[in-house]
Design goal:
Layout (H helix, E strand, L loop, with lengths): L5 E11 L3 E6 L2 E14 L4 E15 L5 E11 L4 E11 L2 H8 L10 E9 L13 E8 L2 E9 L1
Amino acid sequence: MITPWLEFVFTAEAKLADPIQIGQTYEGQRRIIPILEGTFEGPTLRGTFVSAGAADWQHTRHDGVTQADAVYALQTDDGVILQVENFGLRHGPPDVIKRLFAGEDVDPAEYYFRTTPRFKAPAGKYDWMSKTLFVASGARYRNGIKLWFFAVR
């Protein structure tokens, strides 16, 4: 048996616009959250978010779980563009989620926020990211987000 382990890759922080409410759908309450700008940094790569078209299309399901489908790009400090498709789930006790939706800063240990990012990197220095599975844990703030990315080894 080979047991997978996690290797820290980078931390990302981004500023978010106010949600654009779509409304109630068969999936639950749907909204778009534009990703405005941000940075990422780790032991071997760092850079900034590319804001063009970056957004998190999410909905809160009828069971109270917020499901996120974010698509954005990162530009490394050496000029390489990495596309990211990031699927995630966020949930917790109703009082904690209510505080999050009210814009309060809530300790991320009080709720579950995990994602499964997929990278689409060009051939070259970062193509290993297209060949590796990742998981991330996150924290949501009023107009911001912080994610810790890990490679599954």
